[in-house]
Pyrroline-5-carboxylate reductase
Amino acid sequence: MMTIAVLGAGKIGESLLSGLLQAGYAPSQLMFTERYTQRASELEHQYGVDHTDVVSAARHADVLIIAVKPQDIEPLLDELCPYVAPSKLVVSLCAGLPTAMFEQRLAAGTPVVRVMPNTPMLVGEAMSVVSGGTCAQETHLDLAEELLGCVGSVVRVPESQQDVVTALSGSGPAYFFYLIESMIDAGVLLGLPRAVAGRLIVQTAVGSAAMLREGEGHPTIMREGVSSPGGTTVAGIRELEKHGVRAALIDAVEAAHDRSVELGRVHEDGEPGE
Ligand SMILES: NC(=O)c1ccc[n+]([C@@H]2O[C@H](COP(=O)([O-])OP(=O)(O)OC[C@H]3O[C@@H](n4cnc5c(N)ncnc54)[C@H](OP(=O)(O)O)[C@@H]3O)[C@@H](O)[C@H]2O)c1
């Protein structure tokens, strides 16, 4: 039976463990590493999954999922790499770290899959985007997709597109939170209690997203569908256009992309950075 080790059981690592268990993986197939013993004991107690050390994980697990912060990657790789056989699959969830950086440290031929997840993984609604390194075969990508599929949706792109992914789905939750925050403020300005405005807007966001996800139509058609002639919605849309909100969003995503490219230059020589 395939065994999976989650290295670094922080927010993302714990969400993944929880999602894998909910999807039917047995606790005996899973293990995790964690620096703080108290947190490790709490997780063992909560999920019934064994805490282990990095070397045992490298020796015994078939799939090694790295979920430490990028700035913690160096000491982890120092400990891990000497014990990882090329038959193992290494899946990195570390934002911005290229597969080449792992390949340079691991035994030749070790398959590496890079994943850019996002915060909604915490509620099982992640958008995870996977890219294979030079030694990752179709079966490795399929397996990574299956595992990440336990905590949301998964899309596969060439690694060269990961900076766009970072700007769109990686940073995306922050942009939606910002929009929602602004709409709640508008409700408060117009006299609604904040809690009521919050409830209205959050459910409106969830409902709108559900319609989009269920393929009710193109967003433009759906927006036109709620904009009656001479009505309230179109009056609001005119203000959004007047204030350049569409252009501002495009600029925001472009700025996030450019920053991702800039941060990525640090790793071009295979060294980890911020
Ligand atoms: N959170 C997000 O929305 C998000 C989105 C996209 C990508 N990611 C990526 O997901 C990864 C995890 O993020 P996170 O938010 O879950 O971070 P986090 O909460 O800080 O979790 C990382 C965990 O790894 C532990 N750790 C660090 N070095 C270790 C080692 N050598 N051995 C064992 N455990 C170790 C940390 O312990 P300590 O508490 O001792 O530091 C911490 O518990 C990051 O690489 C991040 O780039 C996160």
